[in-house]
Amino acid sequence: MKVSKEEKLFMRSFFGKVGKAIFDYNMIEEGDRVLVGISGGKDSLTLLNVLASRARSQKNNYTIIAAHIAVDSLEYEVDKSYLEKMCEELGVEFVSKSISFGEAVDKPMCFVCSWNRRKALFEIAKEYNCNKLALGHHKDDSIVSLLMSMMFNGTIAAMPPKLAMFDNTFELIRPLTYVTNAETLKFSLYKKFPLQKKNCQYEKKTNRDAVAELLNKMEELSPEVRSNIFSSMKNIRKEYLP
After folding, report:
1. Which of 12, 27, 136, 209 has its CA 20 to 30 A from that of 18?
2. Residue 213 — φ and ψ, nearest 5°?
3. Is the pTM of this model over 0.70?
4. CA distances from 5 to 2, 10, 13, 16, 184 (A)
5. Which CATH architecture group holds 5-139+155-203?
6. Which is nearest to 44 in space by CA: 173, 118, 134, 179?
7. Alpha carbons 15 and 21: distance in angstroms, whole number
8. Distance (Å, rounded) from C-alpha 145 to C-alpha 111?
9. pLDDT digit string (tens) for 145-204?
C-alpha cells in the first residue's frame, strides 16, 4: 500500500523523537535485552513497533522481547491473538502471563493493578535475562504525573525517562518520553491498531483522567503549556523556592 508524504514525514519525526530520547538518556546500549510491556493499548503497541524496527537496524545490537500481563480478576479483554501475530511479524518473542488479585482497602484499584502488573513484568524480565524494562509512557503521562504529585501529594515528582533499580542492576526506561499522546494516537491510526475488545471498568475513575482534562483546559490559556511544563522539570530555579 502506498504511503502518503504526510505519513512519511510524521513517521520520520516520530522515530527521530524516540531516537533522541534514547540517545539523550542512554536508554539502550549494545547487547541489551529489553522487555517491552504491552497492554494492548495504543501507547505500548507504538513503543513495541518503534523499538522492534530500530532493533532490526545493523547499527543497533539489542534484543526485544514483548510481554503481556492479563488480569483475570478485572473485566476487560484485549485481542491476544492480534498481539501474538504482531510480535511474529515484528520478529519479537511474545510472552504472556495471567495474574489475579483482590481489591485493597486503602489503595485505588488502578494503583493495585499497576503495582501487580509491574511486579509480574519484573519476574518475566528476570526469567528471560532482560536487563531493561521499557514502558509506553509518553510526555503527557509525565506532565500529568507531575501535576498529580503537586496537587495530591505536595511533592515535585514525575516519570523519569530512565530509572535505575535493584542496586543499579536493572533499568526501567520510557523511550516515548519526548512524544505526546496526540502523536501516539496518530501513529496508532496510521498503523491501524485495533481497539481493545472490552475496556477496564476502572479506566475512567481515576484522578489521572481528571488532571488530564484539566491539562486540556490549561492549553486553552497557553497553547505551549505541555512543552513548558515538561521543560520546567529540567529548569528548576531553586533560588526562588522556599
Report:
1. 209
2. -70, -40
3. yes
4. 10, 9, 12, 16, 18
5. 3-Layer(aba) Sandwich (3.40)
6. 134
7. 10
8. 13
9. 999 999 999 999 999 999 999 999 999 999 999 999 999 999 999 999 987 655 666 566
Give me the residues paired with residue 132 across strands. Answer: 34, 171
Q: Domain ranges in the chain?
A: 5-139+155-203
Q: Is the dihedral of CA 211, 216, 222, 226 positive or negative?
A: positive
Closest to 97 in 3D by CA, of 53, 128, 140, 142: 128
Amino acid at 159: M
CA 35 to chain centre: 12
From the number of C-beta atoms within 10 Å of its C-beta (0-12, 13-18, 19+), residue 34 rates as buried
Collapsing DSSP to helix, strand or coil, 7 comes out as helix
Q: At what angle do helices 181-191 and 139-148 cross, to 10 degrees?
A: 150
CB contact at 8 A, 176 and 136: yes
